């Protein structure tokens, strides 16, 4: 259940502090009132209409907008949690195209308009568990990944789905600076990708995605650690073999391909038994598959989840 | 410069300056400005300042010698104690908010996770140094022995840097910077000892004869 402010002020219109400070500085320098019109448009997050509420949502209270948009792991824009909010405005989300290719009968190249029209938009309030032991509850807007995959008609050889983020070294961190290789890549097994919980998100809190959250569209896999949910996707490739994934390439003993949330399997450097819900001080127990076990545990029957972590 | 360094006001001012990182944390806490993950914020801030104060303390002697400012030595103990102070805060943040004061849990983590083991080592190495930081202890141990004991601080700073290096996920730039500073400070000391060594040797060699002459 989403609690709307009575004024119905969109969250993106709540001006971030640094922005109004900049504006003051700008205004102080400009004498003519007419200069106001020259103000750069604040990153306009468009309100999304015709969004239905999904029964797959949790009824836990969503994390505040300022935390979801101010505490991000998006290494292309900096490795501090506050960096993406500062730097992601450099990301140009329009025009945008995504290629869907590989083992499919009908490969496609979609522009932004087409992406928003793949399937009816739903609001899905999901728990989000980062491998670093913090978690949030996020009211995503999007549609099931399987809706897109069905449209391209995967062949019998399509066993995995590989995703790739946008990378532009001109305004993003280098591999040396971030310590991980770019472009960021991720992957899912075909049955995971077809699972109704796997979401392609185009918005949150009723509006299009802020850049730091992976605009214009990103993956959300709520039963896996956050780094599986790749941002700002430009390529989706259906493949026969398990594709490489960025964090696994960086440290294979710490980050496996599956990365299912699992309190029983420690990260080599810390226990995953508990997590801290942003912005709380105390910790709460972590639930296997991030609490989505009823829906997804069947995907992994007979698998040693310690080995395939 | 020397006047400022020898002034009796400089020490209290520096003391207050050293408290500022803690003051900033308290201020942020009161204004609910610790960000999305307050515990992480406090842990990182106190950890960062522990390493910084260790490196600042290690810089005192090289700076004193390079710039011929003997009064700088007056500040070394206080800076070192502040490193220990922030190290304790760092430990207590982790022990209380992460381990909920559970000694068994703490023990398990220390033994199981090398970055925690080496961090704990860094802190424990500082304990005897903090305890023997008074003038009374310098006298009791004798300066040579006291100085030898206090060289443990080199290893504490190194362990702290390794702790940081092993803890980051992928961006190692800052731990590398700290390690670089530590290395420079150690190179300076090695060169300084090298330079002092022949003089000491010569002094030793001549001692018996002069002693004989004096008798």
Q: How would you describe this protein?
A:
- The complex is a heterodimer of chains A (309) and B (215).
- In chain A, the strands form 2 sheets. In chain A, strands 1, 4, 5, 8, 9, 10, 12 and 13 form an 8-stranded mixed sheet that branches. Chain A has a 5-stranded mixed sheet with strand order 3-2-11-6-7.
- The radius of gyration of chain A is 20 Å and the shape is globular.
- In chain A, strand 2 and strand 3 form a beta hairpin.
- The two termini of chain A are 33 Å apart.
- Chain A is of the alpha+beta class.
- Chain A contains 9 helices and 13 strands.
- Chain A folds into 2 domains: 32 residues, no CATH class; 248 residues, Oxidoreductase, molybdopterin-binding domain (Sulfite Oxidase, Chain A, domain 2), CATH 3.90.420.
- Chain B has 215 residues and is mainly alpha-helical.
- Chain B has one domain.
- In chain B, 83% of the residues lie in helices and 0% in strands.
- Chain B is built from 10 helices and no strands.
- The radius of gyration of chain B is 21 Å and the shape is globular.
- At the A-B interface, loops of A face helix 3 of B.
Give the structure's gist in a few sentences.
Chain A has 309 residues and is an alpha+beta fold. Chain A contains nine helices and 13 strands.
Main attributes of the structure:
heterodimer; A: 309 residues; alpha+beta; Sulfite Oxidase, Chain A, domain 2; 2 domains; 8-stranded mixed β-sheet; 5-stranded mixed β-sheet; 9 helices; 17% helix; 21% strand; globular; B: 215 residues; mainly alpha; 10 helices
What structural class results from the helix and strand content of chain B? mainly alpha
Q: Which architecture of the largest domain in chain A does the CATH hierarchy give at level 2? A: Alpha-Beta Complex
End-to-end separation of chain A: 33 Å
Count of discrete structural domains of chain A: 2
What's the gyration radius of chain A in Å? 20 Å
Oligomerization state of this entry? heterodimer
The CATH homologous superfamily of the largest domain in chain A is named Oxidoreductase, molybdopterin-binding domain
Q: Poorly predicted ranges of chain A (pLDDT <50, ≥5 residues)? A: 23-43
- Report the β-strand fraction of chain B as a percent range: under 5%
Biggest sheet statistics of chain B: none
Order of helices and strands of chain B: HHHHHHHHHH
Number of helices of chain B: 10
Could you estimate the helical fraction of the residues of chain A in percent?
Answer: 10-25%
Task: Please give the count of helices of chain A.
Answer: 9
CATH class of the largest domain in chain A: Alpha Beta
Q: Based on DSSP secondary structure assignment, what is the total number of beta strands of chain A?
A: 13
């Amino acid at each position: 259940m989403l609690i709307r402010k009575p004024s119905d002020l969109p969250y993106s219109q709540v001006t971030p502090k640094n922005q109004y400070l900049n504006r003051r500085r700008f205004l102080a320098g400009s004498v003519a009132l007419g200069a106001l019109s020259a103000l750069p448009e604040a990153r306009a997050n468009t309100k999304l209409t015709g969004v239905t509420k999904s029964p797959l949502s949790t009824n836990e209270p969503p994390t505040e907008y300022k935390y979801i948009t101010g505490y991000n792991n998006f290494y292309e824009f900096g490795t501090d949690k506050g960096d993406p909010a500062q730097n992601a405005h450099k990301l140009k989300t329009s025009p945008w195209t995504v290629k869907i290719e590989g083992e499919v009968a009908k490969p496609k190249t979609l522009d932004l308009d087409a992406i928003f029209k793949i399937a009816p938009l739903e609001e899905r309030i999901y728990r989000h568990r980062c491998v670093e032991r913090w978690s949030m509850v996020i009211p995503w807007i999007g549609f099931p990944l399987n809706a897109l995959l069905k449209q391209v008609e995967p062949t019998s050889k399509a066993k995995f789905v590989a995703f790739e983020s946008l990378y532009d070294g001109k305004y993003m961190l280098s591999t040396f600076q971030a310590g991980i290789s770019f472009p960021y890549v991720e992957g899912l097994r075909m049955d995971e990708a077809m699972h109704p919980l796997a979401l392609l998100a185009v918005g949150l809190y009723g509006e299009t995605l802020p850049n730091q959250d992976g605009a214009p569209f990103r993956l959300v896999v709520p039963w896996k650690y956050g780094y599986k949910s790749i941002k700002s996707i430009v390529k989706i490739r259906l493949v026969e073999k398990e594709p490489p994934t960025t964090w696994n390439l960086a440290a294979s003993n710490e980050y496996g391909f599956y990365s299912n949330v699992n309190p029983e399997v420690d990260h080599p450097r810390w226990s995953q038994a508990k997590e801290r819900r942003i912005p709380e001080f105390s910790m709460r127990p972590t639930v296997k598959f991030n609490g989505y076990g009823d829906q997804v545990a069947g995907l992994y029957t007979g698998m040693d989840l310690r080995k395939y972590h | 410069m020397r006047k400022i360094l020898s002034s009796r006001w400089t020490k209290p001012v520096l003391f207050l300056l050293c408290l500022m990182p803690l003051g900033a944390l308290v201020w942020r806490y009161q204004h609910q400005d610790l960000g999305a993950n307050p515990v992480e914020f406090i842990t990182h801030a106190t950890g960062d300042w522990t390493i910084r104060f260790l490196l600042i303390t290690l810089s005192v002697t090289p700076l004193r010698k390079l710039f011929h400012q003997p009064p700088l030595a007056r500040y070394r103990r206080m800076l070192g104690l502040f490193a220990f102070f922030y190290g304790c805060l760092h430990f207590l943040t982790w022990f209380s908010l992460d381990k909920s004061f559970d000694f068994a849990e703490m023990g398990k983590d220390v033994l199981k996770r090398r970055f925690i083991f080496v961090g704990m080592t860094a802190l424990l190495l500082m304990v005897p140094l903090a305890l023997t930081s008074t003038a009374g202890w310098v006298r009791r141990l004798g300066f040579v022995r006291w100085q030898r004991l206090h060289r443990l601080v080199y290893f504490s700073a190194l362990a702290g840097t390794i702790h940081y290096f092993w803890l980051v996920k992928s961006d190692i730039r800052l731990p590398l910077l700290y390690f670089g500073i530590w290395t420079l400070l150690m190179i300076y000391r090695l060169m300084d000892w090298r330079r002092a060594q022949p003089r000491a040797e010569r002094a030793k060699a001549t001692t018996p004869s002069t002693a004989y002459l004096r008798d």
